[in-house]
Amino acid sequence: MSAVLSFVAPPPGLAPHVDFALTPVDGSDGLFTLRAVDDAELRLYLVDPSTVLTDYAPMLTDEQTDELALSAPEDAMLLVVAHPAADGVSVNLLAPVVVNRGTGVASQVILEGQDYPLRAALS
Prior knowledge:
Layout: E1 3-7, E2 19-24, E3 31-36, E4 39-47, H1 62-67, E5 76-85, E6 88-100, E7 105-108, E8 120-121
Parallel strand pairs: 1-7
Antiparallel strand pairs: 1-2, 2-3, 3-4, 4-5, 5-6, 6-7, 6-8
């Protein structure tokens, strides 16, 4: 599944870009690249958290679901930003990327009041 995502606001550190291509990484279930449409060198890795974590169940605010026009939980695709490093890979569970599956509208949201780490090591 490759898709073009349109963010409601530039993801942190990626301004002024709002349009990105989301592409699965061959041979890596649940791993995606997110590249700016206007600058293919600008890339992030995103992970489907259901492929690497068992207890990740963030709650979105009404404002976040309204902004993305989500009417049911199954309308949302949840992804987390991966940070590869010499000592392993960590993921940002505090600020997931939420995508409306039907429209491709996306946002990187902050999960306020939820006890998720900014960098959770993957084992």
